[in-house]
């Protein structure tokens, strides 16, 4: 991970002055989406890069120790060995960036990865994920328990009520407390952008989260009706850029929710490269939060290596 963002005193003047130009954001997002991602021969390498940035996620009511174990094994070997061998990448130790689970499943994931001698981090969602509508005391306790069980990354959700009512100092204070409860664990702050109403709120919530010491800002829980979209990402990465220019601290970015295709993964990489540069194109600074993306990436790599799709998957990437 990049050096921890220490945060700063809440700069309410900066936060209150922000106005986002919606038209400019939409135009820029359209440009990024329309980019030819990379020449065909480079696409497989880009897809492998995307794999190394995935927080491989299961966040279901029916999660059990066994499906969490399978998730961990997939995280350890996300792409079939024979496919990697054909690309001369079999000895590169390609894994996903982390696994991401509910707090009650952290111990299962830690056990599975430890048994496999792996140091892949376990991320836990916390603070009343996904809605965040539980008392502060229990949200804080949830963070502490997940860390105690071995999570080294905590994905907190912000209190949308505070953001929607413009209580930025209150939001800052809560996130500060989560930061403290995380201890040495890295903190990713989920804005749940689909519930923030305006781009201006998204920008303000991004700034406040970074000022309060977040190591990453993350778009969504995957449970809102609108999750990771490119326009919202433009707003968030520009907030990251502005925060960096002001403080010298690089905060990471994690789009999450509804990211399912290899093509989308490539667009996210392009967006990061064009908006923040190569320094943000590493698992330390960029994560894709996804439960169902890996399958499509593997199919596209299969196509790259064999020239055809597996029998159960006929649709080519656009
Ligand atoms: O934090 C990650 C998201 O919950 C994953 O969302 P997804 O299941 O739509 O990929």
Automatic annotation (TrEMBL):
Subcellular location: Cytoplasmic granule; Nucleus
Active site: 218 (schiff-base intermediate with acetaldehyde), 254 (proton donor/acceptor)
Pfam annotation, one family: DeoC
InterPro entries: Aldolase_TIM (IPR013785), DeoC (IPR011343), DeoC/FbaB/LacD_aldolase (IPR002915)
UniProt GO molecular function: deoxyribose-phosphate aldolase activity
EC numbers, comma separated: 4.1.2.4
Function (record text): Catalyzes a reversible aldol reaction between acetaldehyde and D-glyceraldehyde 3-phosphate to generate 2-deoxy-D-ribose 5-phosphate. Participates in stress granule (SG) assembly. May allow ATP production from extracellular deoxyinosine in conditions of energy deprivation.
Subunit note: Interacts with YBX1.
Protein name: Deoxyribose-phosphate aldolase
Organism: Silurus meridionalis
